[in-house]
Specification:
The protein has helices at residues 10-18, 62-69, 101-107, 146-166, 180-184, and strands at 3-5, 22-27, 33-38, 43-47, 50-56, 72-78, 86-97, 116-130. By secondary structure, it is α+β, with helices and mostly antiparallel strands. Strands 1, 2, 3, 4, 5, 6, 7 and 8 form an 8-stranded antiparallel β-sheet that branches. The radius of gyration is 17 Å and the shape is globular.
């Protein structure tokens, strides 16, 4: 049976800390709903109402675009090992763009990984747990390193070029604001500046 809470309790925090993967769910008022898996050491519990995660370079940037139009965000964790449980964090999210004071203020909570493009922060207004009986038991082997290796190989200018090609608009055409903080500071050179 589902149970609801108005904040992240210590037992929720302990469960979240044991998970190797979590999922994000977001949507603009119109268009496609996005669900994305997240891994690596990217999530931080900041207090009993706030979580944040490093958003690494990927083939799309749906969450950031959606949050600009509708700040609804859900994070879901489920036990693939041990006792069954699903835990969802519902709330209001925002994307903290690289190079902004907001990003810098939160960055100290993380070890920045190659390819970091922004921090997604969620102000939690509801925690819900449910049984998780339908989630299979899976054995964790290891984190994949391809994402961070690729970002290291591209370097700062290569990442910038990739972001310009793949991460400035959602698949529905909504702007992501990814380079807003870097534009204000000049940022790495654009292709046309090089």
């Amino acid at each position: 049976m589902a149970k609801q809470f108005d904040r992240i309790l210590p037992e929720h925090a302990e469960f979240i800390a044991r998970q190797h993967v979590f999922f994000t769910g977001s949507a603009a008022p119109e268009g496609r709903v996005n669900i994305s898996p997240r891994g690596l050491d990217t999530l931080r519990l900041l207090d009993d109402h706030t979580v944040a995660y490093l958003d690494l370079t990927g083939s799309g940037n749906e969450t950031a675009a959606h949050l600009r139009l509708s700040p609804r965000l859900t994070l879901m964790f489920c036990a693939f090992e041990g006792s069954p449980l699903i835990l969802r964090l519902y709330g209001v999210g925002c994307a903290l763009a690289l190079g902004t004071p907001e990003f810098e203020a939160r960055a100290s909570a993380f070890t920045l990984l190659p390819g970091t493009r922004q921090i997604i922060e969620l102000r939690v207004n509801l925690v819900q747990t449910s049984c998780g009986f339908g989630v299979p038991l899976l054995d964790f082997r290891e984190e994949r390193s391809a994402l961070t290796r690729q970002a290291e190989a591209w370097g700062e200018e290569g990442l910038r070029r990739y972001w310009e090609r793949k991460n400035l608009r959602s698949i529905d055409g909504y702007p992501t604001g990814l380079l807003d903080g870097l534009e204000d500071q000049g940022g790495p050179p654009r292709d046309s500046d090089a």
